[in-house]
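U., I forgot to send this yesterday:
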Amino acid sequence: MKIAILSRNPKLYSTRRLVEAAKEHGHEVRVLDALRCYMNITSMRPSIHYKGEDLVGFDAVIPRIGASVTFYGTAVLRQFEMMGVYPLNESVAITRSRDKLRSLQLLARKGIGLPVTGFAHSPDDVQDMLKMVGGAPAVIKLLEGTQGIGVVLAETEKAAESVIEAFMGLKANILIQEFIKEAGGADIRCFVIGERVVAAMKRQGKDGEFRSNLHRGGTASLVKLTPEERSTAVRAASIMGLNVCGVDILRSNHGPVVMEVNSSPGLEGIEAASEKDIASMIIQFVEKNHKPNRTKTRGRG
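Result:
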C-alpha cells in the first residue's frame, strides 16, 4: 500500500511511530503537511498538489490534523476522499468530534453519560446556568481550547461569574460543566481502534492541578477498565464515526462520564503506559479495511 500521513511535523513521536510501523509492514509511506497541500476542486478529476507535485496513487490516508488547522486539514482530507483514497478517520467525523458542543449533544442524544453541561449566550443567564450545573465549583471551558488550555476551575460562584463574564466579553463561546470532585484530578484515556478498546491509561494531574493532560505535567499509568467503561468508550467512538480515537472518561459517583472524544490521540503516553505497539495496530486496521472509495460517515449530524 501507499499511505499518506497528514502531519505538520514528521518529527513528532506519533508521526514517527506510524511511519516506522507502516514501513515494518512493507508499505510505502509519506508524511504530508496539510497546509502545503493545495487542491483542484472539480467533478471530473479532483486532485491534490504538494509543493508543485500532483499527488496520485495513494491507497490510504492517516490524518493527524492539529486542532488549530481543523478547517483546512479536513478540507484536504475531504479532497483525498473525493479521489477515492481510504481515510483512517473521515473528515466529517473529525469535524464533528472537534466541535465540543456538537459532540456532547450527539453523545447525549444516544444516552452516553456526560457531566451536567450548560451553554448560554447572554451574561444575564449566567447565574441560572450555574445553578443548573450544580453551582460552584464549576469547570468553564472554551469551545476552541485543546490540551487543557482554556479550561478553568471556578471554586466559588463569584469566581465563576467573573470568569464567564470575562470570556463572554471577549465574544468567546464557552461551556460550563459540573465539577466531578470524586475523580480526584484523574481521567482515563481509552484508546479505541475499530470496535474495541485496545489500551487504556489513567492520567493523574500533578498536585493542585485538576487537569490531567500529560502536556500539563500529568502522569500516566496502566488501568483496568470496567465493562461499562469499555462499552461507553466504544459507543462514543461509534457515535462520532471515528475508527481510531481517544475517549476521555471520568469516574463519577453515577458511573463513567465522557469528557471528550479525541480524533488524533497521541501515541507516546499510551504506548509507554500499556507497553503495546499501538502504531502497528493502527496500520493493521488500515490493511484490513482499506478499499477504494470506501468512505461512509456512520451516524448522523
